[in-house]
Amino acid sequence: TSNGSTKDEL
Amino acid sequence: MNIFRLAGDMTHLASVLVLLLKIHTIKSCAGISLKTQELYALVFASRYLDIFTHYVSFYNTVMKLIFLGSAFSIVWYIRRHKLVRRSYDKDHDTFRHYFIVLPCLILALLIHEKFTFRVVMWTFSLYLEAVAILPQLVLLQRTRNIDNLTGQYVFLLGAYRALYILNWVYRYFTEPHYVHWITWISGLIQTLLYADFFYYYFQSWKNNVKLELPA
After folding, report:
1. Cβ separation of B180 and A6 shorter than 8 Å?
2. Is there a domain that residue B143 lies in?
3. Does B182 reside within a domain?
4. What is the pLDDT of residues B150-200, one digit of tens each?
5. Which end of chain B is more exposed for a tag (fewer CB within 10 A), N or C?
6. pLDDT at residue B144 greater than cutoff 90
7. How many domains does chain B have?
8. Measured between CB atoms, which of B56, B164, B177 is closest to A2?
9. Which residues from A are below 8 Å from B129, CB to CB?
10. Where in the sequence is the domain holding B188, given as residue range(s)?
11. What interhelical angle do B134-142 and B34-47 show, nearest 10?
12. Residue B55 resides in a domain
């Protein structure tokens, strides 16, 4: 889920 | 998805609905900064570039569409709708876009996780969202008379940001390697910009008097 991405958030 | 994230998204959604309610049913955008609304439209347009190529969940896609659609329709209403545009306080909404957009763009070009178009635009949208409320806050301070819906709109936007911080704290402790400095710092700055507003909002609520920001 993580690894440098908060792109699962709005 | 944790409860803070969901509550944050719902608060964000509520803020948009409050604003649309004001604009659509009362046909007024008094006290609303068009500059801030245009900046939000730019924020969502640059952040959701991957909306059709990078699928996360049905929930995410629907919410992205709602935020994009509402942002652009609010701008359209204020600029084009013949009744709504009359109530627009143009003389007090004087913040210059490029004072905000340009520094954010430069910062995104300098500080990002990866130098690709998508990631730089995504980073730009984070920086821009952090400060996009400024024209609105300036307008509130200049307007002696803040109506209920406008006050609630800004309060809900601030609450959404505060809940996102709780969401990050929760995720930091529950997910491995969950560290996102760029998102966190810009999110923290964004929330701090509301501190002053929150203070006067709660004061007016506690004392049961009309919300007014000091000049």
Report:
1. yes
2. yes
3. yes
4. 999 999 999 999 999 999 999 999 998 888 999 999 999 999 999 999 999
5. C
6. no
7. 1
8. B177
9. none
10. 3-206
11. 170
12. yes
